[in-house]
TrEMBL record, chains A, B:
Keywords: DNA-binding, Transcription, Transcription regulation. The lineage of its organism: Bacteria, Bacillati, Actinomycetota, Actinomycetes, Kineosporiales. Residues 11-47 form the HTH cro/C1-type domain. This is LacI family transcriptional regulator. One of its GO terms (molecular function) is transcription cis-regulatory region binding. It comes from Kineosporia babensis.
Length: 337, 337
DNA sequence: TTGTAGGCGTTATCAA
DNA sequence: TTGATAACGCCTACAA
């Protein structure tokens, strides 16, 4: 198992020798102890730099240190992983905050069938200090699994109390969306969801129905059928007398507005379309999508913070991130007369 | 530095005790030795499962094991990282092959100013076993840096001989692109690039000019100015009598076709647009983009394979991945008469 | 087929 | 202010 490529990497002993001190002196310097004289410390640092040495993470870990990496296991199909701008924003948003605490992101995209095995392995072999849970499902098997492993985890989105969660303030967003549509005269709207098993989807369903009733709006739910020959066509055919569609994901919403024109349905003249997520893609399609923006970078920052505190033994409370905002573009308009 | 949360994780000793054997017996089983009797091995495995134990990666590493993780450091701005479907495809393509060898991907997105520091740190602290280099620039400072660190690296795209590289077969792609445009009657075309400093950009420039000359085509280069009030408008204004545009990146190309219509330039009636990269985004815009597809997943697989072999001490040769193909959609058409 | 013992790189305790 | 030394979890010669 040893590297076949010749000479070893420098160790703390090499640095100690180069600086003419003991290994513990070097260790002290690199662990922020203040008991080493400035001159000695300086000499040690120079020796370390000259040898390109930094404390070996594995050595550190073996002697009790904690906090290197958090795990993100995505079990969407590669296809939907690729098409969903959410993930790339999340990833980009995570790495900055992680870097400031000296951690990194361990990422994998895998089929759901491998999910349990990956969590189990990454945790037991101590590859990661904790997991960031996304796409929580109702009755999510990861919850009991991670509990049984005594693993550290932070959820992104609504989660059972077992783990602290970072959630978006969807309630105020909902108000904004319904007021916008009602103000345009819409009375019959539909929510379209592709993944009814997701926890946030269910929660959103209930909240939407309640808020709609208050305003005298009729809301129904339409299912997205990815396996249809033309999912957009099927959806449009099934819409009945609905005048506005709220799509759960941007991936879906963009496909609907792009393709509706091909199918002879004018957006927003005949049908308004609104996306529950927003990104640059919403600005790319024509008509541009009216969409609900989300402070994903804020969420990522909070998630890292929660993880950081948990790893240090705290039990931080969940956080709700405010700042969702409806970005009105061209895909919503007055109800057809 | 020790975890404050109570009882420790199980160790190899606990498993050995539970199975009634010595620690080395356990170690042997988990390292594929064949010298343990099937019954004993079975008992050991069961004990390990019961305790949720797997060999601690840090322990393994400290005793000479190698191969946990490869590093991917992206120094695009977060904005262009997010807008470029290439990265998400790359990431998704990497994790599968990595998982099959038991590795994971350590990812970060950081400003270019932090680049050297990150590479240096990740390598010296032995966080990763090697780096995957993307977006190589001409005179890329990472090359001498990684050489001086004796770091392992594999390049994606043209690279100096210092490191093995995985490159796409751009030559045949180029032929296909020029034949397509020439066949439509185009004689004056322009290549648009946003990042002239990238190595692949420069290489492509030379190849394109040469191939164009052979066919009697005029090629000029236009620069994308992201800082302009309206980059698309500026680009269109600067195009002169050019009848076809080849955009280096899909992010740019999609913006051009989407926005050209707003600006009254009809694509492809007045101007043909072709993208050097392809993804689902090219199908989303109207007109759909004619684009050059790339076998990114194949590249990812080769990159992992090269890394895997290098870490084991081999010196594998570079590979050229075939399979680029021009996907003709709606954004290219006959030259205007 | 199984077990003993030494070593891997680092940190922390405690003594000098 | 510095240094010697015993962990930490695991692997591998080598001995039994």
């Amino acid at each position: 198992m040893s590297a076949s490529t010749g000479n070893r990497r420098p160790t703390i002993a090499a640095v100690a020798q180069a600086a003419g001190v003991s290994v513990s002196a070097v260790s002290h310097v690199f662990n922020g102890r203040t008991n080493i004289s400035p001159e000695t410390a300086q000499r040690i640092r120079e020796a370390a730099d000259a040898l390109n040495w930094r404390p070996n993470l594995a050595g550190r870990r073996i002697s009790g240190a904690v906090g290197n990496s958090i795990g993100l296991v995505v079990t969407q199909s590669e296809e939907s992983f690729r098409r969903d701008p959410f993930f790339i924003r999340l990833i980009a948003g995570l790495t900055g905050p992680l870097a400031t605490v000296g951690w990194s992101l361990s990422l994998t995209v895998a089929p759901e069938a491998d999910e349990a095995q990956i969590y189990r392995q990454w945790w037991t072999e101590q590859r990661v200090d904790g997991f960031l849970l996304v796409d929580l499902r109702t009755k999510d098997p990861r919850i009991p699994l991670l509990r049984s492993l005594s693993a550290t985890a932070v959820a992104l989105g609504p989660a059972p109390a077992a783990f602290p969660a970072v959630t978006l303030d969807d309630d105020s967003a909902l108000t904004e969306v319904l007021d916008h549509l009602a103000g345009l005269g819409h009375r019959r709207i539909a929510r379209v969801t592709s993944a009814p098993g997701l926890a946030h989807s269910r929660k959103r369903d209930r909240a939407l129905s309640a808020a709609a009733r208050e305003r005298g709006l009729q809301v129904k739910t339409l299912a997205w059928n990815e396996n249809a020959a033309d999912p957009v066509e099927e959806l449009l055919a099934a819409r009945g007398n609905v005048t506005a569609l709220i799509l759960d994901s941007e991936a879906l919403a963009t496909r609907v507005v792009s393709h509706a024109q091909d199918l002879g349905v004018r957006v927003p003249a005949e049908l308004s379309v609104l996306s529950w997520e927003d990104s640059w893609v919403s600005e790319l399609v024509r008509p541009r999508l009216t969409a609900l923006s989300a402070p994903i970078e804020d969420s990522a920052r909070h998630a890292v913070d929660l993880m950081h505190r948990m790893v240090r033994g705290e039990k931080p409370p969940s956080v709700v991130v405010p700042g969702r905002r409806l970005v009105v573009r061209e895909s919503t308009g007055p109800v057809p007369t």
